[in-house]
Design goal:
The structure is a homodimer.
Chain A (H helix, E strand, L loop, with lengths): L2 E7 L5 H7 L5 E5 L5 E6 L2 E7 L5 H11 L3 E6 L10 H19 L6 E3 L8 H14 L4 E4 L10 H12 L4 E4 L14 H20 L2 H4 L6 E3 L6 H14 L1 H4 L14 E3 L5 H11 L4 E2 L15 H4 L6 H16 L2 H4 L1
Parallel strand pairs in A: 1-5, 5-6, 7-8, 8-9, 9-10, 10-11
Antiparallel strand pairs in A: 2-3, 3-4
Helix pairs in contact in A: 3-4, 4-5
Chain lengths: 335, 335
Amino acid sequence: MKIDMHAHHFPRITREEAAALSADRGPWLRVDEGGKTGQIMRADRPFRPVYDSLWDPHARLAEMDAQGVDIQITCATPIMFGYEFAPEKVLPWAQRMNDLALEFCAAAPKRLVALAQVPLQDIDAACREASRAKATGHHGVQIGNHLGDRDLDDEGLVTFLQHCANENIPLLVHPWDMMGGNRMKQWMLPWLVAMPAETQLGILSLILSGAFERIPESLKICFAHGGGSFAFMLGRVDNAWKHRDIIRKDCPRLPSEYCKRFYVDSAVFDHGALRLLAEVMGTDRIMLGSDYPFPLGEQSIGKLVAEQPGFTDADKRAIYAGNAVEFFGLQSLVG
Amino acid sequence: MKIDMHAHHFPRITREEAAALSADRGPWLRVDEGGKTGQIMRADRPFRPVYDSLWDPHARLAEMDAQGVDIQITCATPIMFGYEFAPEKVLPWAQRMNDLALEFCAAAPKRLVALAQVPLQDIDAACREASRAKATGHHGVQIGNHLGDRDLDDEGLVTFLQHCANENIPLLVHPWDMMGGNRMKQWMLPWLVAMPAETQLGILSLILSGAFERIPESLKICFAHGGGSFAFMLGRVDNAWKHRDIIRKDCPRLPSEYCKRFYVDSAVFDHGALRLLAEVMGTDRIMLGSDYPFPLGEQSIGKLVAEQPGFTDADKRAIYAGNAVEFFGLQSLVG
């Protein structure tokens, strides 16, 4: 059993639909003649070349078959979040995207599972949409790791996390809107440098602020890309917490003690990195996630885990499927 | 033999001296009554509490004795760089700081070794000062990892690196002026999240731009804090290079092939992180570095390396001293 819990889709949104969100920045999909390839667009600017598995569930299912993926948990491509636009435009947008995601998954309801998106800039609306999405068939919510200058320690965002804990709505936190600005113009540096830092910042914002102390332990929260640079930098963070008062002031426990409060996916692309990740997080807190269908994802889904030296068969089964079944409540699909 | 190659000092600069560099941002040292503690200041704003080993070589030598450190390589605290000020003010400032560093080291010329600073915003002046500093007794130069929006792939900065390669001037690259801005106001997040990202960005700027192809292989360049998040993210970078054309366009080799072109220090604070670092870099490219005398440094200098599972005695000797002797040309001090 192989469950890939980190995959993205992008519906065939027209330019007109995107313009209702934002005339000059709304994301839409331009499909090339033949229907096999296309571009994610922002107004008239190409954002990323893509291919049909991103929007066509049948193309996707064929690839899942070829890769031996039994179940895939799919969520929005982060450019669809819309957090930067007016809340009154983003609630209907999120609802529409969430309904389209369920349509996408309806092609194979036992194999395709959706996570919703929410208008995080309006916490009340975000809580309502998370609950509505759950009621309509979503298995959780994906959020970005921040909202402008507000990171996950922000009072409103903590309220949203508390809501998800109370309603048993699992969360995937994905980096987006990457720091670094003009200094990362080439070579996809925002994806290589800023995304791991964003994810680490998201985790540390929950730990060092003491937010984890105020959020129910029942919260199911997973960070993408193996938690970014978090696991490798944790020794530096623990050392800093021990020796500098201003780092411990809001965080009563050693930062590494909070690792049991969250999950990560397995998308780290290197056996040494995965070994360290497993030591830091435990194999019971890592879930197979590929970042499909993008070129920066794992191209042979699950190969790294399958070939990981030192992992027992039980470790591999947990990472491949068992942890995700528990986290996302997929018992009815695998039972 | 234990050589600590990552340590900082800050001379007893007066507020008046600092004002000659910048009236509202010049860094200086306010020493408390009793002379044992103080504050690094920017104009009238406290920047960081410090203690006498930062400016008093005799206090430092007593700590080196207690820690069993035979030789220490010391460089400016990055707030002293002055890269943001007018070049004509920064050249004399850098010269003065470099002369003060030699005075500091003169307290124990066989045990304290200095790295210079240069006015990097004026590449000609930076090259001249690097050469002058070498002639006056410095064993290399410390630079910041960027200069505003210019990273290490910037043409001027590459010219400086080429100069250092040609003149056999070893370089330590230290993160500073950290990305993230308003989002990292508390808990020293710039030191925990942005510094590792800055260092990774510095390394990737040399790799992905193809700059390493244009710089002589003789360049000796070392990145602080174990290279930041570089080693852990390298799998992601290699994978991205393989599968996305815009990442390989200026970089002819797999990014991991460039690891042999640079060194890192050992300041990673965790055995799992150090093991991964040694796998990625080789134990011949790691040098003991503590970030002394700051609370975010290794408090028991060399303990992590000494107790590292899997390191042979030869590995430990190389990291403790052998690699630094070769890198900085310290044969006359240890022979």
